[in-house]
Design brief:
180 residues
């Protein structure tokens, strides 16, 4: 039920999703849905909880190599892959961005990216003309683009991960002091 709701929230947003449409997809009655989730808001909260939980796990999964831009690349590609391939993560992010869910994940992700960008700046790995805050904005825009593209091309997902890696390499060329 949560996965079906995620598909609808991802494609149609909170306001464009009805409990009836979710019921039709999973072939259950409205009573069955409301037995488990008292309201559409409760169902949206379940999507946000599951989706952002996965994103938090991905954020924590990276190892620290001592090379901040390498660690940033690893983080960006893990999150981008999840946004591209997992409807729960995309729907959760959309719900939070649209104000229909509460999660600390966006702030945690932003802080994690900022820490890595500041570390890269301190080691001279970030281009001198790029402020760490600017690097954070670039990363957030890349993530929004990945999610929007995946949403447009659903259910098959967005471009292959290799394309996301190629896009990130192009972005990294503008961020890194010595581009790869």
């Amino acid at each position: 039920m949560v996965l079906a709701a995620a598909r609808h929230f991802d494609q149609h947003g909170y306001d464009g999703t009805t409990l009836d449409s979710i019921c039709r997809e999973v072939n259950v009655t409205l009573g069955a849905v409301t037995f488990h989730f008292r309201s559409k808001a409760a169902l949206a909260s379940a999507v946000v909880e599951e989706g952002t939980g996965e994103l938090r796990r991905l954020g924590a999964a990276g190892s620290t190599t001592g090379r901040p831009l390498h660690d940033l690349t690893s983080l960006v590609l893990r999150v981008a892959t999840a946004l591209q391939t997992t409807v729960l993560t995309r729907a959760a992010v959309r719900l939070v961005q649209d104000g229909h869910g509460c999660s600390g994940w966006p702030g945690d992700f932003r802080a994690q990216v900022l820490r890595l960008a500041e570390a890269a700046s301190a080691t001279g790995d970030l281009a001198a003309h790029v402020r760490p805050a600017t690097a954070v904005h670039v990363v957030l825009h890349v993530m929004e683009g990945v999610a929007a593209n995946a949403r447009r091309t659903a259910p098959g997902g967005g471009p292959p991960v290799a394309d996301v890696e190629e896009i990130w390499c192009a972005v990294l060329g503008g961020l890194a002091a010595d581009a790869p």
